[in-house]
């Protein structure tokens, strides 16, 4: 198999599993139904955005007016609900630790220019990342609508995944911080007097040199509580927000994933309260089903996982066929080295890529003398050469070139 094809296939397999989008919003605990391409200017996939200088950094790719706009008023709590591939799945890979923010801009701007105001930001607090709290809240976080003038606005919730951000994307496009942002169309029907300062722009607010865009979440010597959330301070006129699960109001049962009833009773706002994600006792049917949090392997770990599996199987089959103890020891040894390196790459700990490169070199050197002895050594020679080149290039890129 061509290595290029192999790597492309492997990355396609993992890409859809690892990322996240906004499914919809809740207003004062009332589910507004699926917002994807309805009232959310949803990107076509849940892929991360890494090029912070791109013109589409404001509302992600596919920024266009969509048919619905959700009416809210000052004091309302708008809860965003994130998901991987479908509602109530595992939301986002738990490896994707980082901050969560919410910005707002007038819809008339379409997100362009210095039109954005920050309403909420949380990074690393009380011993955990905002994304950890989002997982505990089953994908929910919220903002309270401030007392701003009536009109149409875009809310822009944003997650930054820092699992590969030890280097900037413009230094190494294989890695870098991952941005997940979606723009939600709302209409504020109350007419407040607090003007939004509209101070920042996307692109522009975040630079590759901005503190917090490059950050190592795995560095045990760094106090993660000192993480500087990139971007402006939260606006003084913000009414705040939290990373907690919405309490279902007048709409029981929607938490199981079946409910899509929009609207609901608009007069129940004062009853609305929040609950902690951990202590939440409402319907959570997926707690034992599809929503096991997965640590989806990052793309560069995938070849090593596959090679590890191949070597283990190859070593054992070789032993069964020929009773060759050296082939068993070599296969299992190299296989375990590959698996260890894949795990390290996924976690971002030190030397994972180097170990994968070493395993590839070992495998290549031991299989190349037997290249013509049959299909198995031939395949091992070719795949180990390919993965060796792949990891060699990745290590080279990471070393600052
Ligand atoms: Cu991802």
Describe the overall structure.
This protein has six helices and 15 strands. It is α+β, with helices and mostly antiparallel strands. Strands 3, 5, 6, 10, 11 and 12 form a six-stranded mixed β-sheet that branches. Strands 2-1-4-9-13 form a five-stranded antiparallel β-sheet, with no helix packed on it. Strands 7-8 form a two-stranded antiparallel sheet. Helix 3 (302-322) runs antiparallel to helix 4, helix 3 (302-322) runs antiparallel to helix 6 and helix 5 runs antiparallel to helix 6. The structure holds copper (II) ion.
The helix fraction, in percent, is: 25-40%
What hetero molecules are bound to the protein chains? copper (II) ion
Counted by DSSP, the helix tally is 6
Looking at the chains present, what oligomeric state does this protein adopt? single chain
Structural class: alpha+beta
N- to C-terminal distance: 29 Å
Anisotropy-based shape: elongated
**Element order, helices and strands?**
HEEEEEEEEHEEEEEEEHHHH
Spatial extent as radius of gyration: 24 Å
Strand content: 15-25%
Query: Largest sheet, described in full?
Result: 6 strands, mixed
- pLDDT below 50 for ≥5 consecutive residues: which ranges? 6-16, 252-297
Number-wise, the strands total 15
Mean pLDDT: 83
Signal peptide: 1-18
Subcellular location: Membrane; Secreted
Main location: membrane
Catalytic activity: [(1->4)-beta-D-glucosyl]n+m + reduced acceptor + O2 = 4-dehydro-beta-D-glucosyl-[(1->4)-beta-D-glucosyl]n-1 + [(1->4)-beta-D-glucosyl]m + acceptor + H2O
């Amino acid at each position: 198999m061509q290595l290029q094809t192999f790597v492309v296939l492997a990355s396609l397999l993992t890409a859809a599993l690892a990322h996240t989008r906004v499914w919809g919003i809740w207003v004062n605990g009332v589910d507004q139904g699926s917002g994807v391409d309805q009232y959310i200017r949803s990107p076509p996939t849940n892929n991360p955005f890494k090029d912070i200088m791109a013109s589409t950094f404001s509302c992600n790719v596919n920024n266009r007016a969509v048919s619905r706009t959700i009416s809210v008023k000052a004091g309302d709590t708008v809860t965003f609900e994130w998901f991987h591939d479908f509602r109530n799945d595992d939301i986002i890979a738990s490896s994707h630790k980082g901050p969560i923010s919410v910005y707002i801009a007038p819809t008339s701007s379409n997100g362009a220019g210095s039109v954005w105001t920050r309403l909420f930001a949380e990074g690393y607090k009380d011993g955990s990342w905002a994304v950890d709290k989002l997982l505990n809240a089953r994908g929910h976080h919220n903002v309270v609508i401030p007392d701003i003038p009536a009109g149409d606005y875009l809310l822009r919730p944003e997650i930054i995944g820092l699992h590969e951000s030890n280097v900037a994307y413009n230094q190494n496009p294989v890695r870098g911080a991952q941005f997940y942002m979606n723009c939600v169309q709302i209409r504020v029907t109350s007419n407040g007097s607090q003007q939004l300062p509209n101070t920042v722009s996307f692109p522009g607010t975040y630079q590759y040199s901005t503190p917090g865009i490059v950050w190592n979440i795995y560095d045990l010597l760094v106090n993660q509580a000192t993480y500087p959330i990139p971007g402006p301070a939260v606006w003084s006129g913000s009414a705040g927000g939290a990373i907690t699960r919405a309490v279902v109001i007048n709409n029981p049962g929607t938490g199981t994933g079946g409910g899509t009833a929009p609207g609901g009773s608009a007069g129940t706002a004062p009853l609305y309260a929040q609950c902690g994600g951990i202590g939440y006792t409402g319907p959570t049917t997926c707690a034992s089903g599809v929503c096991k949090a997965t640590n989806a392997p990052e793309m560069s770990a995938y070849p090593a996982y596959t090679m590890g599996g191949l070597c283990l199987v190859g070593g054992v089959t070789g032993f069964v066929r020929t009773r060759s103890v050296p082939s068993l020891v070599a296969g299992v040894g190299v296989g375990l080295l590959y698996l260890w390196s894949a795990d390290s790459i996924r976690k971002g700990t030190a030397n994972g890529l180097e170990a994968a490169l070493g395993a590839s070199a070992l495998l290549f050197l031991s299989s190349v003398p037997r290249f013509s002895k049959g299909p198995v050594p031939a395949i091992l020679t070719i795949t180990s050469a390919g993965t060796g080149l792949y990891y060699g290039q990745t290590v080279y890129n990471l070393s600052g070139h």
